Amino acid sequence: EAKQWFADRGHTRDELDRTDPLYGRYKGKNVVLIQLEAFQSFVVGQNIGGQEVTPNINRLMKTSLYFDNFYHQTAQGRTSDADLAANASLQPMPTGSVFTRFAQHDYDSMAKVLKMNGYQANAYHAYDGGFWNRNLMYDTLGYDHFYSKTAFNIDEPLGWSLGDKSFFKQAVSMMKTQQEPFYSFLISLSSHHPYTLPAAVQTLDVGAFKGTMFGDYLEAIHYVDAAIGEMVDELKAAGLWDQSIFLFYGDHDNSIADWQPFESFLGRPLSEADRFRILKGVPFLVHLPDDARAGTYHQVGGQLDVTPTVLHLLGIPSGGQTMIGTPLVTEQPLAGKQVVFRSGGYTDGSVLYLPSEDGLEAHSKCYSFADGKPLADSSACQAGAAEARKELQASDLVVEHDQVPAMHANAKAGTVTGTG
Ligand code: GP9
User: Could you name the active-site residues (predicted)?
Assistant: First the structure.
C-alpha cells in the first residue's frame, strides 16, 4: 500500500509537470536555498514603533513569490526534520530524528537528483559538522561537499558560532569559484534560541519587549533579515542573482511558550486555530531569475513541497522519486492539496484538523481555515484525516525499512513487464 501511495503521488507530480507551463521554465539555473533558524512568518511585514521588522524581506517580496500559508512539518528532530522535509520530501519520525536514527538508509534527495542532472551540490552550515549527525547524513543525501564550521573564518563571532552576515558572505564567495550549475543549501544559525545578541547588533527598538525573550527574538529576526539583504546584494555583485533560483524557508517555531507577547505584538487575541497557524507558519519565498510571478500566494504548502517545487521549475521530472510533496510554483494551485503535520493534523486551505492528544477522535478539532471557528459538523475533516494518516504511514514505512531502493527497483520492473 505504501508503494502504491508513493506511485500515486508520483503520478500527480508527473501530471503537473506535463500540463503546467512553468515546468522547465528555469532549466539549468543554479539553486540557492536557505533554511532559516527559528524563523516564523508572523514577523514578516510587521512594524514595531514605526520600524519594519523585516525591511529586506519586504523589499525582496516585491520581486518574488511569497507563500503566506506555508507551514513547517517538523517534530522532535527540529532543524534536522526541516532539512529532511525540504531536501528529501519525507515526513519526520514520531520520535527522534531521521538524521540520527536512519542516516544509513537511502533517500531520494534534491542533491542526488540535481547531481544526476549535471549539478554540483554543496551544503553550508558554520557549526560543528557532527551536530544532528550532518557529516553522515549529508553523505547519504548525496552532497559533493559539506562546508561546516572549520571551512569558515570566524570573523564575526555571534551566538553559537559565526554570525549569519559573515556566513552568507563567505558562502557566496565559495559559490563564485564553483562550476555552474550548482545547488547550494545553507543553514543559518544566528536566530537560535535564546536569541540574545550583543547590544551593538541590536538595531530594532522593540519598545516594551526590551529585555524579554520575545524582544530578543525580534532583534535576532531583524539581524537575519539584514543578513539576507546583504546576501542578495552579494549574489548580485557576483553575477549569480540572475542565474539562480533563490529560495528560503523557516525551519521551525521559536519555542516561546507564552502567548501573551504574541497577542500584544499582533494587537489581537489569538484563538486556538490562530495559535496553531502561528506556531506552524514559516515563510517560504521563491525568487525567480527574471523576477517573474511576484506576489503573495495564499495556497497552502509545507516544507515537503520545497524539492518538488525546485525540480518542477528546473524541468526535472520527480514522478519517479520517493517524495511526498508537490510543486507550489505552478500556474494553478493543485486542487485538494493537503499539508500534513506529524500529529496527524492537516490543512487543505478549507479546514484545519487537529487530532486530540489523548487519541480520542471525539476530542479532535475541525476548524474552518478561513476564520478559525470550530465547524459544527466535524465530519468535514474525517476523509482528510484518513488521507493524512495514510501519508504518515507510507512515509514511516519507507524511512524505517529503507524502502527507497526497492521503490526504484519496482518502478524498473514495472517498465519491463508493463505496457512501456
Ligand atoms: C545547529 C542548528 C540548531 O547546528 O542547526 O538546531 P536546532 O537546535 O534548532 O534543532
Answer: 79
Is residue 345 within 8 A of residue 365, CB to CB? The reply is: no
CA of 37 to the centre of ligand 1 (A): 7
Enter the C-alpha cell of residue 94.
Answer: 514520531
> SS3 letters for 117-148?
CCCEEEEECCCCCCHHHHHHHHHHCCCCEEEC
Which neighbouring-strand residues pair with 145?
122
Residue of 336, 246, 253, 197 lying closest to 82 (CA atoms): 253
CA of 171 to the centre of ligand 1 (A): 19
In angstroms, the CA 17 to CA 331 distance is: 11
* Cβ-based neighbour number of residue 181 at 10 Å: 18
b/e sequence 115-131, b meaning 16+ C-beta within 10 Å: beeebbbbbbbbbebee
Q: Which residue has the cell 516561546?
A: 256
Is 192 annotated in a binding site? The answer is yes
| pLDDT tens, residue by residue, 19-63 | 999 999 999 999 999 999 999 999 999 999 999 999 999 999 999
Q: Write down the pTM of the prediction.
A: 0.97
Q: Within 10 Å of residue 257's Cβ, how many Cβ atoms? A: 7
Does residue 79 have an active-site annotation?
yes
Find, among 103, 36, 97, 47, the residue nearest to 72 by Cα. 36
Question: Which candidate in 12, 19, 63, 79 is catalytic?
Answer: 79
Give the residues surrounding ligand 1 with Cβ less than 6 Å away. 37, 78-79, 125, 127, 131-132, 187, 189, 192
Ligand 1 centroid – CA 300 distance (Å): 26
